[in-house]
Amino acid sequence: MQLDAPGRPLQQVLHERLPEPAPGQVRIAVSCCGVCRTDLHIVDGELAFPGHPVVPGHEIVGRVAALGEGVTGLAIGERVGVPWLGWTCGECAPCRAGRENLCENARFTGWQIRGGYAQQLVADARYVFRLPERYSDAEAAPLLCAGLIGWRAYAMAGEAPRLGLYGFGAAAHLIAQVAVAQGRELAAFTRPGDHAAQQLARALGVAWAGGSDEAAPFVLDAALIFAPVGALVPLALRAVRPGGTVVCAGIHMSDIPSFPYSILWGERRLVSVANLTRADGEAFLRVAGEIPLRVHAVPYPLADANRALADLRAGQLSGAAVLACDAPPG
Predict the structure, then answer these.
(1) Where are any strands of DSSP class E within 170-266?
(2) Is 264 helix (H, G, I), strand (E, B) or coil?
(3) Which conformational region is residue 290 in: left (phi greater than 0), alpha (psi within -120 to 50 degrees), or beta?
(4) What is the mean pLDDT of the segment spanning 195-213?
(5) DSSP 19-88
(6) DSSP code string of 283-328
(7) Are the CB atoms for 128 and 84 separated by under 8 Å?
(8) Residue from 184, 151, 157 nearest 170 by CA
(9) pLDDT in tens, 180-201
(10) Long-range contacts of 148-151 (CB under 8 A, 24+ apart)
(11) Percent of the chain with pLDDT strictly greater than 70
(12) Which residues pair with 271 in a beta bridge?
């Protein structure tokens, strides 16, 4: 399913030949691919179009089908996952400092690199993860971005006993379970009137759930913003205590409105999350293997990718949309 230009629907494209892995790459037969809000930002033109057709998708689960020259440590038929960060140079200053998520020359799966809205793809073997066995393919897919970005945002919040989550979709419903298992007290803020998301939050152990226009019954030590809504930043700053942290977890967000310095003062911190590192992936997948996360996957056929994106755009999903990619094309 290919995007030829931003703002257009994805088109089904059939190729006569399978892609061949270059040295250092693997070819993966895709089982399924999660649908992420970043895919929506690419399709809607909110992220720069790379100048060539795009196959979206970076929450990819499949089996290794072919190994490129020099690839070791992976076997044909092994189940693997492919995340958003798809290639780094290893030579720029951030890479040398161990901050590959900020690589100056990075390339991203489903944006500059053909992604997982497909039956086959090639990926850099360095950025391929083994997945916990306890999850089905559809359950494992959202772990590869919603889970990973949620984990990095959660880590940036530090040892916050009381945590607020703004937007309760794919990422929040996963990291909420980790936080509850680790003894944190949580508040979930949804779109006003989104009772389904609030009910899901409570079912997962969140102490309080309500609309973003409401106040939680306790002061927050930190807040994670997953919804791409800049207007939530001042709300979150008002909700956290002095010394607290507000983490903006999305790759794209609408403009943040001006706000009085008084709600930032008191050594509150406002930070953003950019991508992930391989260490993030390994750490989160290890935790996901230990904590039995309930993954709310909503299945769609690959050919219905446009419908899945539309449902995400309209806020009609509780959980994570996942495309089934291993069925014959229609």
Answers:
(1) 185-190, 208-211, 220-225, 240-248
(2) coil
(3) alpha
(4) 95
(5) PPPPTTEEEEEEEEEE--HHHHHHHTTSS---SS-B-----EEEEEEEE-TT--S--TT-EEEE-SEEE-
(6) HHHHHHHHS-----EEEEEGGGHHHHHHHHHTT--SSEEEEE-SSP
(7) no
(8) 151
(9) 999 999 999 999 999 999 999 9
(10) 148/83, 148/84, 148/276, 148/280, 148/281, 148/284, 149/84, 149/249, 149/273, 149/276, 150/174, 150/175, 150/178, 150/224, 150/226, 150/249, 151/175, 151/178, 151/280, 151/283, 151/284, 151/287
(11) 99
(12) 247
Size of the chain in residues = 330
Which pLDDT value is given to residue 330?
Answer: 42
pLDDT tens digits along 41-63: 999 999 999 999 999 999 999 99
Report pLDDT digits (tens) over 267-311: 999 999 998 899 999 999 999 999 999 998 899 999 999 999 999
Contact 83, 109 (CB under 8 A): yes
Amino acid identity at 242: P
β-pairing, 120-124 vs 129-130, is unpaired
Q: Is residue 233 helix, strand or coil?
A: helix
**Other CB atoms within 10 A of residue 133 CB:** 8
The structure tokens listed for 280 are 């993030």
pTM score: 0.88
Beta carbons within 10 angstroms of residue 126's beta carbon: 15
Which contacts of 282-286 are long-range, i.e. CB under 8 A and separated by 24 or more positions? 282/129, 283/151, 284/143, 284/147, 284/148, 284/151, 285/129, 285/130, 285/131, 285/132, 285/143, 285/147
Q: β-pairing, 120-124 with 107-108?
A: unpaired
Give the strand order in the sheet containing 185-190: 208-211, 185-190, 162-166, 220-225, 240-248, 269-272
